[in-house]
Amino acid sequence: MSQPAAIHLDDYQAPAWRILSTRLTFDLAPSATRVTAVLTLEANPDAAVGSDATPPLVLNGEHLTLESVRVDGRALASDEYKVDETHLTLAALPASCELETVVLIDPAANTALEGLYVSSGMFCTQCEAEGFRRITYYPDRPDVMSVFTTTVIADKANYPILLSNGNPVERGELDGGRHFVTWQDPHLKPCYLFALVAGDLVKHADSFTTMSGRDVALEIWVEPENLDKTQHAMNSLKASMKWDEEVYGREYDLDIFMIVAVNDFNMGAMENKGLNIFNSACVLANPDTTTDAAFQRVEGVVAHEYFHNWSGNRVTCRDWFQLSLKEGFTVYRDQTFSADMNSAPVKRIEDVAMLRTAQFAEDAGPTAHPVRPASYIEISNFYTLTIYEKGSEVVRMVANLLGEEAFRRGSDLYFARNDGSAATIEDFISAMSEASGRDFTQFMRWYSQAGTPEISARGNFDAESGRYSLTLHQSTPATPGQAEKLPLVIPVRMGLVGADGSDLALTLDGEALGTETVLELTEAEQTFVFTGLEAGADPVPSLLRGFSAPVKLSFAYSREQLAFLMQHDSDGFNRWDAGQRLALAALEDLMAAWQQGDTQASLDARLLAAYRFLLQSEPSDRAVLAEMLTLPSEAYIAEQQTVVDVDAIHWARKTAKAQLATALRDDFVALYHANEQQGDYAPTFEQMARRSLKNAALSYLMSIEDEEGVRLAQAQLAAAHNMTDVRAALTLLVHSSRTELGDPALKAFAERWSHDPLVMDQWFSIQVTRPQADVLDRVRFLMEHPAFSLTNPNKVRALIGAFAGQNRVNFHRLDGEGYRLLADVVIELNRLNPEIAARIITPLTRYKRFDAKRQALMKAELERIRGEKLSRNLYEVVEKALA
Ligand code: 0A1
Ligand code: ZN
């Protein structure tokens, strides 16, 4: 087998053929579905062609059995075309013609979940990025846009509901108990936005009146048992539609908008035109089965997919290198939406915490890539935190540099100019540039340079002259294939906090700037001198407020300064961040003690005092307080280390928590009671904040297995007010050292919820994240559980993903058993579902961050995987990891 080849951005060429219309007929049967495609073709006058003859028509197609080919009604003999494993090629076609192909496909055997497949007895599709080529022969690239008419034929009893994109235009009965529906989508779209669903489904129907007064039918289609879990998604959809009208001036453009929930899905959801298909985990929600975090995820994902109708569908991507054009922008849109719907500071804290752990780790690892990669082997491997989350941070910087009004003018211009076409990142940035008059030449480096920039900041206050000088130095570490980095445009929002805790007035180069400003760092090093400060001001800089750029910033703060900022910084994000920095310093002390064999070390008294202050003052914002009472995660601590010492990190965090709990026990008990539930559950952010505070308090109490804590946890579990509280209590009991607390609770939980796959996912995750050393046997045991299945991505994530990604001490066991388990699963998934295999392997690919012994063990497992016949997905990841 030849090795998979890389595709390069620089090789882009316009498509040789255009498709004026696409007519599809699906005759559905699980193991033999017949797909007839009629394409109206036209040689593309804009394409680069060498001679007068029309260029060959090269169509993608994989896992298809070709039955017939006709051109303008004439059946072709088999020597009139060329067909192989990946393509159908036709030469010497007239410059405009009609091509009909008939193929057979096997949806029931499709465990990769790309193209048309069967999930829980229903047919559904996933075509992004390159799944359509598993449905029919087609130019499977996003810059070929066409109008689609789709007829779906199926057995009526088994598949009463037949859906596709656009509007239903015809339906009827056929012989043999079959029926059909024809759908027409008037909007131009690339084939990755095609969708089809057929099954025995019920709908939650509602409607929305758009800003121009049109009524849109809203339908959420689910299996009958899930109809009581659709209200939250419907509310979120209506809120998203309204928000996009108000904030971006974007109105929905069809008469019907549908969402379908499916149980087997590789990602979160998919924005197919008019027919979004969702992983059931990202659409179904109800208080008894769903945690607050999952409610918020549903809201965010529904919004994300809806927003794609403009940022992705009306304006799509020219090629897959531009993926962040739609994804970075749409994540930015959904993050801002969620911030508007909930607590904005907490949303920002959560997003940044995720970016700083997971995305920064990706940027520092073997698969690091720019927001716009220059090459790839398998595009499915590039649905990454860098494309999505860092891409969103880049759009956020654009928005902040421009200000609200100019940014809106820029987005209006971008949509107007590119509507109905396939665009590039340059098209987006040039619209922003023209609308604002700002030059983005240097800024574009954010799209081409991989790696997380590092800023080191130094400050000096000269009391005599009243000058504070701040020097910022930037550099970006080398990443694979990119040794040299150039300086970026880095907006650093900042203020100077005076001795009394208030922001000082800033004067820079003679200009009065108020109490906060954005410094634009554009060179490797720059010094900014603030003048006119009082001699006694003694300023403490508050830097990178609101996380104004996706960078690592270091400043030699004293712990007293951090405690001070934690109390006084006027920026809520930076108050939290100061607390994280202080906690990190205290945790690093404990880790150093542990590494010297000292297990009696005490936590820095300044952190304890800061916590006491937090617990004893009246909370101004409960949601932020819950975040401030959370110690940095093990993953975040690991990110700060040169060589990750998983055991030291785990011990230090556990010890710090236990010492805080011992010293502040009564405050935590009081905090618990002050936030107990009153009234009925609602997924409002005020209630969520109370629950997270209460459960944070309980988690401290349980860290010392305090008797009162155990009693409260058991009572909370028994009261079963809602899944947030149930899951929190169950997790604490199961993660305690006392198996007699956790085991019976797990058993009862499974008995109660064995019928609900999404709840059982939680049951798996809770057990496999147990920190005790007995967990690995449990993981292997649970892989045999009847509710587990390797062909269901949610199950794989809940069990294997949670173990390898969140149970760091046990995954990194020194006998290598954790690594071996993951590698075994990866090898099986390589065959079943390559996309999931290439994602779940991630923790193994990060071996360079660990000690020599662990490195050797992890590499050995990667080598073992490499010995298999690998899918392109895994091939790319494993080769990069071992390079
Ligand atoms: N565009 C979707 C993400 C998505 C990508 C690929 C998929 O299958 C391989 C599925 C969904 C989104 O951003 O939500
Ligand atoms: Zn998206």
TrEMBL record:
InterPro entries: Aminopeptidase_N-like_N, Aminopeptidase_N-like_N_sf, PepN_Ig-like_sf, Peptidase_M1, Peptidase_M1_dom, Peptidase_M1_pepN, Peptidase_M1_pepN_C, Peptidase_M1_pepN_C_sf. It catalyses: Release of an N-terminal amino acid, Xaa-|-Yaa- from a peptide, amide or arylamide. Xaa is preferably Ala, but may be most amino acids including Pro (slow action). When a terminal hydrophobic residue is followed by a prolyl residue, the two may be released as an intact Xaa-Pro dipeptide. Coiled coil: none annotated. Keywords: Aminopeptidase, Hydrolase, Metal-binding, Metalloprotease, Protease, Zinc. Signal peptide: none annotated. Gene3D superfamilies: 2.60.40.1840, 3.30.2010.30, Neutral Protease Domain 2, Peptidase M1, alanyl aminopeptidase, C-terminal domain, tricorn interacting facor f3 domain. This is Aminopeptidase N. It comes from Cobetia marina. The lineage of its organism: Bacteria, Pseudomonadati, Pseudomonadota, Gammaproteobacteria, Oceanospirillales.
